[in-house]
Amino acid sequence: MTSMAHLRIAGLTKSFADAVALHPTDLDVEQGEFITLLGPSGCGKSTFLRMLMGIAAPSGGAIWLAGARIDAMPPEKRNIAMVFQSYALFPHLSVLGNLAFGLKMKKVPKAEQERRIAHAVRICNLGPYVARMPRQLSGGQQQRVALARAIVMEPDLLLFDEPLSNLDAKLRETLREELLTLHRRVGGTSIYVTHDQDEAMSMSDRIVVMNEGRVVETGTPFDLYRAPRSRFTARFLGRTTLVDALAGKGMARLPWGQMMPIDSAASGPVALSIRPEDLDPALDPDGAGVVTGFQFLGSAVFYHVLAGDIRLTASAPAREAPIPAGSRVALISRAPLHVLDDSAGAAS
Amino acid sequence: MTSMAHLRIAGLTKSFADAVALHPTDLDVEQGEFITLLGPSGCGKSTFLRMLMGIAAPSGGAIWLAGARIDAMPPEKRNIAMVFQSYALFPHLSVLGNLAFGLKMKKVPKAEQERRIAHAVRICNLGPYVARMPRQLSGGQQQRVALARAIVMEPDLLLFDEPLSNLDAKLRETLREELLTLHRRVGGTSIYVTHDQDEAMSMSDRIVVMNEGRVVETGTPFDLYRAPRSRFTARFLGRTTLVDALAGKGMARLPWGQMMPIDSAASGPVALSIRPEDLDPALDPDGAGVVTGFQFLGSAVFYHVLAGDIRLTASAPAREAPIPAGSRVALISRAPLHVLDDSAGAAS
Amino acid sequence: ASASADMKPVGTDSFNMKHLDFDAATLTRENFYDVLVPVAKQEGEVNLYSFAASFPVFWKEAVIPGFEKKYGIRVNFYDVKEDVAKQQLIAVHQADQDSPADAYFAPGPTPAETRNTPIIANLPLADVLPEAKNFDETLLHVSFGFDHGGTFMPLHRDQTGMGYNSALMKPEEVPADFPALLAYAKAHPKQVAITSPLKGGSGENFLYALAQSMLTGECHDKLASDFGWDDAAAAEWVKTSGCFTPVWAYLRELTPLVEVTNGNADTQNLIANNAATIGTVWEDYAYTFVQDKQLPETYRITLLANGQDGGGDGIFVVRNAVHPAAAMLLIDYAMSYEPQFWKMKNMASRTARKDIAITDAIDAKNAQFLVPEAIYRKYAIGYPTVPVMTAMRDAYVAEIVSKM
Amino acid sequence: MSSTTARAPRHDGWPAMKGDQPNGRTIALLLLPGVGLLALLFGIPLVSGIFGSFGLGMGAGRNAGPTLASYAKVFGDPRYLAGLRTTLYYGAMAVLVDLVVAIPLALALGRSFVGRKLFNGLYKIPLAVPGIVVAFAMLTLLEQGGFLSRVLHLVGLSLPRLVRDPWGIGVIAAMAWKDIPFMTLIIVGSFAAVPEELLHAARAFGASPLRAFLKVRLPLAMPGITAAILLSFIRSTGSFVIPDVLGASYPLPLSVLMYQAFRDSNWPLVYAIGTVLMLASFLILLSYYFLTARIVAPAGGGGR
Amino acid sequence: MARSSRIPFSTDDSLWLAIGLYSALVLVIGVPLAMIVLWSFADGWFPPALIPTAFTLEHWRQIVEDRGLAEATLRSILIATTVTALSGVIALPTAWAMARFPFRMKRAVEMFVLAPLIVPGLVVAVGVGQLFLSLRLAYTVPGVILVQLIGTLPLMIRLLSASLGTIPEDLLLAARALGASPLRAMLAVVLPLSVPTLVAGGLLTFVESFQEFDMSFIVGAPLVETLPVRLFFYLDGSGIRFTSAAVVSLILLAPVLIVFVLAGRIMRDDVMASGMGKL
Ligand SMILES: Nc1ncnc2c1ncn2[C@@H]1O[C@H](COP(=O)(O)OP(=O)(O)OP(=O)(O)O)[C@@H](O)[C@H]1O
Ligand SMILES: Nc1ncnc2c1ncn2[C@@H]1O[C@H](COP(=O)(O)OP(=O)(O)OP(=O)(O)O)[C@@H](O)[C@H]1O
Ligand SMILES: NCCCCNCCCN
Ligand SMILES: [Mg+2]
Ligand SMILES: [Mg+2]
């Protein structure tokens, strides 16, 4: 008998009266993994999490966690904790009350409760706030309380439902790193839901890309970004220009006539995903493209370039002054372009 | 008599009973400019906008718009329109009702109303939605209605108070570009408030960086990013590592011993702002730094590097697999490092 | 008072009327219609208040149509709650304003109750209304032991008694007097319904009748005939004289055995539901219930020996009435033969007219629901005075109710 | 809550150009129609009533005061003391019954069931039924020999005394009948204001459905529920006609005693009883403020 | 942006719950009301009969033929409508100030506004009667309207100030920014947004006004006679006759029930709950 994954999901599905929120889905997660579910709003991410948590009933399928089948258990029997998008801190309880809530419910002995809370307070830096009420905390602090409340449960599985999406840009970035550090320190298994690609890429061991109730693709951030199989993944994860090209012998002819190396031996019509950093725009009066505009992002400049009738984006480091709009540029290939799995077709 | 700026603000200030929200501030804005006010929460950005709009009374100073002094006028007399963070669409009026509201208030003739609304509906792509109620629109559509409602007023000045901060990441990016395109098409003068550095950098002609009720620095995005004068600007706009160094002859000795070129002829102790893209980490068993972690962002990888006792960030393009944590790297200077104006001191 | 004597205000030197549009001083029974009819027609209308639950039908069927036809004067009829109306009129007069009502059919104790805050016009109606000459002279001047000087006309005579369901009680079981009632209650706990003396007239009167039968000698004389009481003195006497000891002793024994109800209707409903076999009732009110099929045909009424109280309610011109002439005409009309006969026939409302006997109006079948004439003649008695009655109710609370 | 640190406090109301807070005169002018009218129509009579309870200003010839006689009666006479007790008893019991019915009903209304919309309208009917009609309906229903006892008689059962009974069962039932929809309405609203996510969180952290209700939903809905309790209590204590028709003839609640004093034109006593009733309500109101000051409003933090 | 994500534990329409609730409704509300209807037609209903042994229209005839009834009904509707409209108009500015401005003694003002809910009507009624006599408002329709406002304003102010407090500041600023003067912003934005509250408060006010007896009688009767003043007499506790009382109850209830049925569709529970849910 082969050993089973820490979390195994088989054929999990959820239909509502009027729609299918999640088509049958399989997923294995190993102990200690940090998995992200990434997809646009309404694609079924929360539904997925809620079924894991037990606060929504699956329409079909099975879930095993740490060797036991859990899909028919009520939430309070599962050893899973969750950090909610709105934090869902109990407003009538102090930070300490919030942290102790779950332990009391599970009748953890007093001494053990204290030990675990002290531990969580320490790693989440909540020392000064334990006596405060949630409304007396900033968003970031609330977020840490929500996390600590989950950690004290020492759950087999930790779920996050867009825990950062209510925060502002600068804070979001800071907490992202903090969260990851905590995950490493605690060493648990986590499933994290987001629709923010940066968040997904910078945090996850693996990303599960979802769309319209289906898993589109699963892989490490690097693989999904550099070598997505589907158009959807290519487009949802970072910027890309999708073009049709004619391939052969490791090269492809692009619509504006240039030949460039590709990462596949395919021949015939193919769909390419061109990342901005794949092409280097260089001032050249005979170049194939014209700069129509640019977007300065500090570390890099994104140029909108019209090549033939294709509008594409190419980036350059922003160490010197940007190339002005209207300039003609040559597009120099920096790396082999990626060929998508989907058979070619209008890459709209 | 010299010609006056389209919008001139002189000594504008606002105090509340318990605090000064805006210290005396001067600002000139030219016709057609897109200016961003950027700063952390509570720095006085909204207060500034509200005084321009006339919905908060200045404690001092003067405002001229299109040649007329307006600071004592009630809001309904000023020819200024505003897009609110919450959109502030009237929930009881249809899209059309919202668009017509201001025109009716200003008693614009019927035919003219229709012309302007048709124009705004066209450029904001609202055709299919004119009959809907605001609650039947998605966030992005609501945002466009709020904008159209401002555009129909044909204002001398268009104000935006964090109009994108309520939206999710992917949509925020799309709308950012849409908004800018619209600004260009309409050709008006705009002041845009945000605390999102990417937004400020990618949209503005000029950025006004604010902190604690004061303007810290004003300049183009490129200048402010590459050559900030103050630590605050350097840190708030993009990532940076601030270090103390000893300068002389266009070079500086960094804390971990390396010499690197700088962009100033200063000599003696200086404070440097090192952008991640200024340093190229290259695998090198004898290198000065050790990679402690990295963050994959698709187009680039940010490496956390420990050099001496300085933790800094250096970025590399993400075309090949990232350098694993623990590797020793050499830090290669890609461009002269920037010397801050502030006299040196602990660059915490 | 002679029929031709000039009319004088009762009690004071002047009439307490702001709108006397005729010379009241020269009014007599003889010139009554000649003087008042033209003035009343001028006034054009009259506002009538009426308090009693069973009376709207009387006004609407027996008085108003005939009156309006006869004089062409419109009657605006208003049902009122007695306590609210009384307070309204007191307030009006304290503010020295015109009265909203011209004539008011009010509870019998009203003249006594309002003697300090007069709301009754001091017109000696007894002396000038032509119809008054057919009425019992005492009842024209005294209501509930209070001599109001002929300002309050006895429109309706009533009688309390013990109503019972003859289907549930053999004739010999029907208690004949207070001791028998107590014995019956002991044998049939909770089958006797006594209206709370605090909630309705039939219960109050049960209390008074009990006192009138139990008090003897000097005590009884003081209860029945000494009309010089003021409130405080009456209270003092009831509380401290010791005269009432047997009354309280009786009630202390009886009360736990009976159902004390919240009103006359409440008592009657218990009888109708077979939840009580016998209870305190108003003769006329129970009669109305029988006609309305809310009491069974087997319902009967009797009086306890040694007497049960009866009295009446009256009508008066309201002080500062705006239509005094019309009001006087209306009162006169309501006292005339036809309406009084109709009232007796349909409502078992007895009359103070000397020319109508109960047997004239009511047939044998309906007479079953009235107090048999022989018993009535023997046991119907009048009330103690108003101050003593009030004092007895308070004492009842102190002695009985709060000790249960 | 949408952002990290506390956002700038907003201006309230109109941003006037002459400074950001509207001045006192503007506020006074806005308050005037409502508060002014109440001051005139309600304040003056109220004050004269309170004076009246000391026998002051009772009109010519009736000015008996200043005297504490009426209060002495209310607090000295066993009848009135018992009245005060009865008032509090009826009020408390009615509220108790209200709660026992309204809380489960509010929970049921939060779920979906066939015909929910219609039910939602129908259960509120008693709100529109005058007290006297309620009393009348209950009397015909609960009285000995009334409808209910006739029905029970068919199956050989007999009804305990429900009207004029020493425990005031009929009175309490009628008061509760009239007040339950009111209570339910408020509790439904208070429950709905508790974010569902908090209940999910409670379940996620190991609470059974019952415990999630007791530990999270109930405490968070408490400010609304206590307000409902308070208002129902006040309505019950003021109710006159229901105890008058359905209650035992002794002891009578203060409301009925006050009406009797009114009947006897004993104005100082009417006003004294009224003042005592008012004070009782007021004390309860104050203790409400005191208690709820400690309970967090659900809208505070943690919500969205 | 807060996206609402609600997944109920059970999404199925529960049939047994519906059966339970509706049975309870029929027993608890239906049966007492049925008593009233039956009594209004009863011609003899003695034990052990479960329904009247005979029926008659006589009780209805007696009361409906009352010549002032139609007039009093119309007058009551007129008065209740006016009271409702005035309550809204008077409460709006006051509620606005209470909801949106800080001012000294706010707590005290709030409590004062609530006080009429606490103070027994009798204590006020006679004082008002005296006052109105001297103001020449006694026995006038305006007098009755004013006295009823005492009872209806507190509720309306409460409800409105709770709901006005939730109108986002930004909406008002937006209206100003789009050229509306403060007054026009009030009319064009605040008023329409208060409609659900005005409807809920208005219905309750209408019901309360339509049924008010004591104060209306003291101030208005007899010249201004409302329907309850005309009919409550039949309901006098000590002299009650079930038959006519039943007819009167139904006449008083009918319009109010109609209003409630209509209201069921437009009245939002949350409005009522928010107004009364926190004092
Ligand atoms: N209770 C429900 N009844 C019907 N449909 C529902 C219900 N809950 C969710 N859905 C639908 O199921 C789909 C998936 O919803 P879900 O909340 O899982 O999306 P999500 O990926 O979490 O989106 P977001 O990023 O906006 O949170 C959506 O189309 C949604 O409308
Ligand atoms: N009505 C007020 N009374 C007192 N202080 C105020 C008031 N309004 C704003 N302030 C204070 O003025 C300062 C500036 O507030 P402002 O709203 O302009 O900040 P902001 O830059 O727009 O912040 P954010 O990014 O959070 O919107 C803050 O410290 C705030 O607390
Ligand atoms: N308290 C008033 C006593 C007079 C009662 N009269 C009753 C008449 C019933 N028809
Ligand atoms: Mg979701
Ligand atoms: Mg702001």
UniProtKB/TrEMBL annotation, chains A, B:
Citing just one GO molecular function, the answer is:
ABC-type transporter activity
Sorted alphabetically, the keyword list is: ATP-binding, Nucleotide-binding, Transport
PROSITE patterns attached here? ABC_TRANSPORTER_1 (PS00211), ABC_TRANSPORTER_2 (PS50893)
Q: Which superkingdom is the protein from?
A: Bacteria
- Family indicated by similarity: Belongs to the ABC transporter superfamily.
What Gene3D superfamilies would the database entry show? P-loop containing nucleotide triphosphate hydrolases
Topological relation to the membrane, as annotated: Peripheral membrane protein
Pfam families for this protein? ABC_tran, TOBE_2
Compartmental location: Cell inner membrane
Annotated ABC transporter domain residues = 7-237
Return the SMART domains for the record. Answer: AAA
List the InterPro entries hit by this protein, alphabetically.
AAA+_ATPase, ABC_SmlMolc_Importer, ABC_transporter-like_ATP-bd, ABC_transporter-like_CS, Mo/tungstate-bd_C_term_dom, P-loop_NTPase, Transp-assoc_OB_typ2
- List cellular component terms (GO): ATP-binding cassette (ABC) transporter complex
Protein name, please?
Putative spermidine/putrescine transport system ATP-binding protein
SUPFAM superfamilies tied to this protein: MOP-like, P-loop containing nucleoside triphosphate hydrolases
What coarse category fits the chief subcellular location reported for this protein? membrane
TrEMBL record, chain D:
A Pfam family that this protein carries is: BPD_transp_1
Keyword Cell membrane present in the record's keywords: the answer is yes
The record's listing under InterPro entries reads:
MetI-like, MetI-like_sf
Primary location: membrane
Which keywords fit this entry according to its UniProt record?
A: Cell membrane, Membrane, Transmembrane, Transmembrane helix, Transport
Q: How does it sit in the membrane?
A: Multi-pass membrane protein
ABC transmembrane type-1 domain location is 84-288
Locations listed in the record: Cell membrane
Q: What is this protein called?
A: Putative spermidine/putrescine transport system permease protein
The record's PROSITE patterns line, in alphabetical order, gives:
ABC_TM1
Task: Please give a single GO biological process term from the UniProt record.
Answer: transmembrane transport
From TrEMBL, chain E:
Domain ABC transmembrane type-1 positions? 73-263
Q: How does it sit in the membrane?
A: Multi-pass membrane protein
Q: Does the keyword Cell inner membrane apply?
A: yes
Q: Where in the cell is it found?
A: Cell inner membrane; Cell membrane
Keywords per UniProt: Cell inner membrane, Cell membrane, Membrane, Sugar transport, Transmembrane, Transmembrane helix, Transport
The protein's matches in SUPFAM superfamilies, at most eight in alphabetical order, are given as: MetI-like (SSF161098)
GO cellular component, alphabetical, reads: plasma membrane
Family that this chain belongs to: Belongs to the binding-protein-dependent transport system permease family.
The identity of this protein, by name, is Multiple sugar transport system permease protein/putative spermidine/putrescine transport system permease protein
Originating species? Kaistia hirudinis
